[in-house]
Write the structure tokens for this entry.
Amino acid sequence: MARFRYRMQNILDIKGKLEEQAKITYGIAQQKYMTEQEKLQEMVVRRTGYERKLKKLMDGPMDLHEIQITRQAAESMKILVRRQMVEVHKKELELEAARKALTEVMQERKMHEKLKEKAYEEFLAEQDHEERLAVDQLVSYNYNSK
């Protein structure tokens, strides 16, 4: 019996490797996004802390130097938070691009797998047809030789 050999198996293998690479790239992009997101959360917490401290200083006895330092720190944190939001947005766009690339590569691999399945089904149908022809020839040979 003949063996099935998919003539585009090397392409399917390459598509599988490309998918693995895309998964790794997506994972790295996701990790970078999460890191930037965590930095943003930490900065927001620090900014909130400065704002609370500023509020306490305003309610208590007035220490103008301390109030000025705290206000300046709160303003600096606002600027840093805005910058970090931009950085998070950049990482989010990179993550989305990596996700789209992964989806595209996965679709291509699945398409080649479907083609392989279809080729295998055609191979099986051809084998079945050849077996039927062989059986028919054997039967007719036996019938004619009697």
